[in-house]
Amino acid sequence: MHAIASAFGTLSTRDPRVAASSRSYYATALQVQRMDLARLQPVMTPANESVLSKIKTDYKEKLVIFLVRSMLLTEFEIMQPLMNFSFWNHAFAAGRMLEILGPESCIESPVHQLFLLLRFQKAYIALAGDTPTFLGTLPWITIPFSAYPKGDHDVLFDILLEITQVRTDKWTQDGSTRAESLNELNRLLEKLDIYHKKIKDNMITNGFESPHDFNLIDILRSIACLAIARKMALLVPDEKSPTDIDIDEHCRFIISCAPYISTAATFSRQLHIMFAIHLASIYAESEEVRHHALEEFTAWQQSLTAVNS
């Protein structure tokens, strides 16, 4: 906690002494985390469901503590990155703890709130690496929300996570399987358009807090469109794209939201924009658009690390 508090202090004060203090706390927390991981290692890869059930019972408290600490270390690495995307390792460790705990453990606080934060990070990592995540499976999209209703962002994140589940690798070389993947992507695109319109109409009717809130819904839609278009292109590489999604247009829109970073009410909202801009630097077809997105993302990263130099 000391490391996170100091990291936030560094962001607001730009004081190198605060940054040095936060790094010292981080090193201590990392050492404790590694020792705990060594103790938990024998139960990290259970042989069967009965073993997994016993782990949940006997080690639940330790797993939750490890999860909390992993999330704190992830936040620190995002705010004061030691290297590009160094937070991914902590997010992976937190994800493994969450997966062992199971979706039922995410229904109530405080694990539910940690689950929401982690699924945002894991969705970004999965989309950036074009890899599936367990958080996109049906139990993880439904069970954790048994006690808490989904908000607008949650519904759109469901779609993002479902997109990560669509296979485009060697297993889709069979024609029927490839067709099934394309059908699923078209279904998700239709679902996206329906929910996006519904959310925007409700926001216009009821009012919204700020332009940033309004644009965040559009940013999530653009990310989903980019991910769908990319997977479709992988499925039919030698044919005309089966969608009329304008990839560069969506990337330009995401990049145009960069000025909202300075007015974002929370650091989390900054991350929504900057992670989207990083995805634009990956997905854009035009070299010019990719370069512009990468410039914006690099400038933001440098603003975080400048105080550490």
Low-confidence regions = none
Distance between the termini: 23 Å
Number of E-state strands = 0
Helix count, DSSP H or I runs of 4 or more residues: 12
**Largest sheet descriptor:** none
What gyration radius follows from the Cα positions, in whole Å? 20 Å
Average pLDDT: 80
Q: What proportion strand?
A: under 5%
Structural class: mainly alpha
String of helices and strands: HHHHHHHHHHHH
Please state the overall shape, judged from the principal axes of the Cα atoms: globular
Percent of residues in helical segments?
Answer: over 70%
Describe the structure.
There is one protein chain. This protein has 309 residues and is mainly α. The protein has a domain at 158-309. 72% of the residues lie in helices and 0% in strands. The protein has twelve helices and no strands. It has helices at residues 2-13, 16-40, 49-79, 87-101, 111-129, 138-142, 152-164, 175-206, 211-235, 247-256, 267-283, 287-305. Helix 3 (49-79) runs antiparallel to helix 4 (87-101), helix 5 packs across helix 7 (152-164) and helix 9 (211-235) runs antiparallel to helix 10. The longest helix has 32 residues, at 175-206. It is globular.
Characteristic key phrases:
single chain; 309 residues; mainly alpha; 12 helices; 72% helix; globular
